[in-house]
């Protein structure tokens, strides 16, 4: 419904349907808002219920077909000892799969830390950069994004591994007090795995950092240029404008893709199994070779990866709600 001026200057009502256009120059108007559902209206629930029923039916069919597989005997009870088992002292301890999950969590965590430390500065440097100023960030992003992460892992493991002082680092860790040495073993890697862990973290951190750089660059450039002008009019320097005005607005834009990139970092950690790092995929292969269980092992491994992804997604939604409230 629209209002229009009548012949005598009085307002008359136009009941013809059409998009609710905002005044000229209002950048908040979009065809999705004009033609989409109006505020206060509720979307019908039956499409969601239909999709849920279809997915549930597909899952039930897969379970039924799996139970009817010929010449395959399911051994879910045997899988328990590879998740949690009793040690020699009689206490419960993590099995091979959960220990592999711990290594996966460490690889993903440190890789994402390195990705943020490299990607955020590169993205900020590349935002609104033109000419020669944009060359360093463009070169880094172009080379890393177009190189398979497996190639990076092999390169850093076989080549850079000989250049990094891994042996000296392991010797220094062995001479640390017992509490610090145990903390390094628990939080990063034991001395025998230090070279492989460093190669995996460096490769995945640089690889994910290239995507983080593009996410940050796009988020900063999505903030309207008028915000820079307003901050400059208030007497802010460029650093103050970026920290106090631009980044708080860009954070809401970059947070969802950063959460997705974090999930990708944990999933890409499976590539470290090819350099014999005992993460979840590597341990799953070992357990499968010993127990001759195929479906049980990979269903469990997939469920563990899914739990990690759901935890990251839940944390991301919590951060989004916090940023919206702020």
Describe this protein's structure.
Helix content is 68%, strand content 4%. The chain contains 13 helices and four strands. It has helices at 31-35, 46-67, 76-83, 96-126, 135-145, 149-163, 166-174, 178-187, 194-222, 225-233, 238-268, 280-291, 295-325, and strands at residues 2-5, 11-14, 84-86, 92-94. The strands form two sheets. It has a two-stranded antiparallel sheet with strand order 1-2. It has a two-stranded antiparallel sheet with strand order 3-4. A hairpin with a 5-residue loop joins strand 3 and strand 4. It is globular and about 75 Å long. The two termini are 35 Å apart.
Q: What's a quick, concise take on this entry?
A:
With 326 residues, the chain is mainly alpha-helical.
Tag the structure with descriptive keywords.
mainly alpha, two-stranded antiparallel sheet, 13 helices, two-stranded antiparallel ribbon, about 325 residues, 4 strands, globular
């Amino acid at each position: 419904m629209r209002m229009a001026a009548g012949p005598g200057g009085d307002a008359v009502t136009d009941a013809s349907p059409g998009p609710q256009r905002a005044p000229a120059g209002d950048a908040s108007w979009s065809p999705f808002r004009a033609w989409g559902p109006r505020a206060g209206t509720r979307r019908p629930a039956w499409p969601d219920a239909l999709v849920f029923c279809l997915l549930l039916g597909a899952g039930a069919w897969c379970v039924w077909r799996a139970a009817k597989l010929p010449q395959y005997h399911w051994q879910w009870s045997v899988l328990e000892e590879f998740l949690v088992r009793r040690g020699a002292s009689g206490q419960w301890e993590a099995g091979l799969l959960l220990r592999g999950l711990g290594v996966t969590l460490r690889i993903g965590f440190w890789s994402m830390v390195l990705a943020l430390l490299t990607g955020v500065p590169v993205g900020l440097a590349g935002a609104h950069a033109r000419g020669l100023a944009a060359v360093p960030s463009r070169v880094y992003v172009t080379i890393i994004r177009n190189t398979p992460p497996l190639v990076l892992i092999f390169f850093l493991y076989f080549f850079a591994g000989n250049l990094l002082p891994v042996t000296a680092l392991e010797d220094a860790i062995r001479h640390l007090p017992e509490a610090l040495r145990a903390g390094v073993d628990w939080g990063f890697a034991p001395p025998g795995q230090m070279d492989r862990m460093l190669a995996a973290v460096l490769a995945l951190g640089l690889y994910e950092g290239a995507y983080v750089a593009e996410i940050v660059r796009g988020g900063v450039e999505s903030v309207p240029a008028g915000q820079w002008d307003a901050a400059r009019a208030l007497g802010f320097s460029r650093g103050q404008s970026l920290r106090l005005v631009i980044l708080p607005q860009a954070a809401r834009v970059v947070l969802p893709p950063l959460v997705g990139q974090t999930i990708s970092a944990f999933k890409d950690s499976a590539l470290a199994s090819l350099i014999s790092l005992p993460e979840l995929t590597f341990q799953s292969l070992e357990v499968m070779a010993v127990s001759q269980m195929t479906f049980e092992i990979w269903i469990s491994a997939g469920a563990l990866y899914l739990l990690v992804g759901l935890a990251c997604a839940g944390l991301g939604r919590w951060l989004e709600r916090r940023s919206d409230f702020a």
